[in-house]
Amino acid sequence: MSDAAILSAPARRRGASGEAITAWALGLPAVLAYLVLLLLPTLAAILLAFTDYELGAPAFAWIGLGNFTELLGDRGFAQALRNTIFYVAVVTPGSILGALAIALLIEAGTRGRTLFRAVFFLPVVSLTVAMASAWQYLLHPSIGPLNAVLRQVGIAGPAWLSSSDTVMWSLAAIGIWENLGFNLVLFLAGLTAIPRELYAAAEVDGAPSAWERFRLVTWPMLGPTTLFVLTITMIRSVRVFDTVKVLTQGGPNKASEVLLHAMYLEGFTYFRLGYSAAITLVFLAIVLALMWLQTRVLDKRVHYG
Amino acid sequence: MTESVTGIVVENATRNFAGQQVLKGVSLAVAAGEFVALVGPSGCGKSTLMRLIAGIDRPDSGRILINGRDVTTLRPAARDVAMVFQSYALYPHLTVAENIAVPLAMRRMSAAQRLPLLGRFWPGSQARRRGIREEVGSAALALGLGSLLDRRPAQLSGGQRQRVALARAIVRHPAAFLMDEPLSNLDAALRVHTRREIVEIHRRAGAATLYVTHDQAEALTMADRVAVMQAGQILQVASPRAIYADPDDLRVATFIGSPRINTLPAEIDGHGLARVAGFPTGVRLCGAERVTGAATLALRPEDLFLADGGIPATAEGLEFLGESLLLHARHVGTGTALVLRLPPELVPDLPPGSRVTLGFDPGRALLFDAQGRRLRDTAVVPEPSLV
C-alpha cells in the first residue's frame, strides 16, 4: 500500500499538466460549438447592426447608430414592439395562472393524472406550424367551428385572424394554449416536491380553508418554480414568430406585426441585414434584461436560504 | 362515562389502507397533564394513530374525544391539538417569529387582517398583532429562541429547528400535545439532552401529551406511562417499570429491554410445574390458569447468573460494557441463545466453548403461554420438590 503511494507521487505531479490538457481536449467540442454557434454570430450581429449591409451588396459602409435612429422613427417597428409587449403581457399571466390552476386541480384529483398531463402537454410536443393550420381552420370566419358555435347562440363571430381588433387577442390565445402544457408540467413537478407534512402542519395550525393553505404552503413553496416558469414564459413569448408567420404574416396592415417577424421581413424579404441586425439587438437586450431580472432581483425572494 | 374524562381518549379506532388493516380497534386514554409514550417498531400503526388524533386522517370506525368532546369528524383546526412533526414541518419562507405566530394568527385574526400589507390597516389588527407578538416572545423565550426570532429555518441547526417546532406547538396552550418522533433527526448527544427539555416543557404546559417513538429508551425515560404497539394493536399500557418488569405479553417483553429478554421454550406438566428441556425451573403455575403443554419462560439478562448447578449452557463470548459485562451463551438442551448481564469483577475467564451452568431466581422468571399471553398466577416451588 505505502509503496504504491510513494511510487505514484511523482507520477501525479507529472500528471497535473496532462490533466489540464485532457480537460481542454474534453471541453473542446463544447467550446467550439459555443464559439461558432453562439458567440461569433452574436458578435457578427452586433457588428452588422452598425452597417448598412444588404444581402448581395458588393460593399457596405459603417453608419454608426444610423440603424437605431431609423428604428426610433420607424412606425412599423414601434407597432411590432407594442404588439410584442401586448403578447407577452397577455400570454405570460394567462399561461402561468392557467397552468397553476390546472396543476392544482390535477394534483388534488385522484385519477387521470397521466392522461391530463399528456393532454395538456400535447401542444408542446406538436409542431407549431402544423398546429397553426388547425387554428386557422378553427378560427375561420365562415367555416370555422368557433364561429359556428357562436352563430348557434346568436352572436356573429368576428374574423378572428383578419380583423385588426381581434388578431392580437387570437394570437395571444394560441400562445397561451402553446405554453400552458409546458408550464403545467413544471408546476406539477413543483407541487410533488412540497412535503406533505407542511400541509398537515398548516391544518393543525388552523389554516381554515384551502385558500389559506395555498397561501401559507403552496404558493411560497412553489416560489422557485414560479420564478423559473415566469422567466421562461416571458422569453418564449417575446420570441413569438411561427404562429404570426403562418397565420397572419403580421397583417392585417401590421396589426399583428411582432419583433421577430419584423426582423425576418427586414432581413430575408427586404435583405436589409444591417437594419435587421439592429432589431435583433433590441430583442437580445429585452431577453437579457428579463434574465437579469430573474437572477438579480427575484431569485433572492424565492429561495429561503 | 368517558365523556367526563379530560385529555385524549381513543375508543376502538380502526383504519384500513388499501384493504390492509393498519389499526385493529385501538383504545387509549391520555389524561390531562399526563405524558404517554406510544412505542413500537416502524410500521406498527403508531403514526397512523397520531394522525387520527390530530385530525389529519379519519378513523374508519371508533371515536376520538378530546377533553370530553367528540372530535372524530372535526377538522384539525377545531380540535385544540398541537403537533410536532418528525421533519418539524416549519414554513421555510417565514422567520422563526412568524412560524411560531402562525397558529395564533390563524385563529385570532380574520382573513382580511392577515393580508400581507393591507392587513395592518384593518380595524383591530394592530392590537391583535401586538398580543400575538407578546405571546410569541414568551414562547420563544421559554425555549431559548429569543435571539433567533428573525432567522429563517434554513439558517438554524437541527436542534434549533426542533425548538421552533416545539414553540409553535406550545404557543397556543392546546388541550392535547402530539409529538411524532421529534428527536429522531437529532444526533445522539443532543437527543439525550432534549429528552429532559421536552419533559420539562410538558410539565409546564400541563397538556395531555402523546409521544410517538420507536426508541424504547425515549419511551422509558420520558413517559408517565408507556403504550406498546405492534401490528396495529396496543399490547399494554403501563408505567415504564411495569412495562419492563411485569409485561402482559411476550411481544412486550421482547420488544422492551436491551439486550433482549432471554426466552426459553418450556413445558408445563399436569401439576403446573414448568420445565425447560426436562430441567425443573422452580416455577409452578397455580390457581385458575390450568394451562399445560408448551410455554415460554423469559428471563431478563440481569436475572441470570453463573451458578454451580442449574441450566447447562456453552459460553460463546464476552462483551465488556464498563459498568457491566454481557456473556453470550447457548442453552445446551434447546440451542437457544442466551445473554447474561453480569458484574465484570465476578466473571472468570471464559474461553468460547467452555461449559457453564446458569442459575436464576424463579421469583423473577416470567411465564407465557403458547400464544404469548402472560401467566401471572405462578408460585415458586420450595427447594426440596425441585428434584
UniProtKB/TrEMBL annotation, chain A:
<feature type="transmembrane region" description="Helical">
    <location>
        <begin position="167"/>
        <end position="195"/>
    </location>
</feature>
<dbReference type="InterPro" id="IPR000515">
    <property type="entry name" value="MetI-like"/>
</dbReference>
<feature type="domain" description="ABC transmembrane type-1">
    <location>
        <begin position="81"/>
        <end position="294"/>
    </location>
</feature>
<feature type="transmembrane region" description="Helical">
    <location>
        <begin position="21"/>
        <end position="50"/>
    </location>
</feature>
<keyword id="KW-0472">Membrane</keyword>
<protein>
    <submittedName>
        <fullName>ABC transporter permease</fullName>
    </submittedName>
</protein>
<keyword id="KW-0813">Transport</keyword>
<dbReference type="GO" id="GO:0005886">
    <property type="term" value="C:plasma membrane"/>
</dbReference>
<keyword id="KW-1133">Transmembrane helix</keyword>
<dbReference type="GO" id="GO:0055085">
    <property type="term" value="P:transmembrane transport"/>
</dbReference>
<dbReference type="InterPro" id="IPR051393">
    <property type="entry name" value="ABC_transporter_permease"/>
</dbReference>
<feature type="transmembrane region" description="Helical">
    <location>
        <begin position="273"/>
        <end position="293"/>
    </location>
</feature>
<feature type="transmembrane region" description="Helical">
    <location>
        <begin position="85"/>
        <end position="106"/>
    </location>
</feature>
<keyword id="KW-1003">Cell membrane</keyword>
<dbReference type="Pfam" id="PF00528">
    <property type="entry name" value="BPD_transp_1"/>
</dbReference>
<feature type="transmembrane region" description="Helical">
    <location>
        <begin position="118"/>
        <end position="138"/>
    </location>
</feature>
<keyword id="KW-0812">Transmembrane</keyword>
<comment type="similarity">
    <text>Belongs to the binding-protein-dependent transport system permease family.</text>
</comment>
<dbReference type="InterPro" id="IPR035906">
    <property type="entry name" value="MetI-like_sf"/>
</dbReference>
<feature type="transmembrane region" description="Helical">
    <location>
        <begin position="216"/>
        <end position="235"/>
    </location>
</feature>
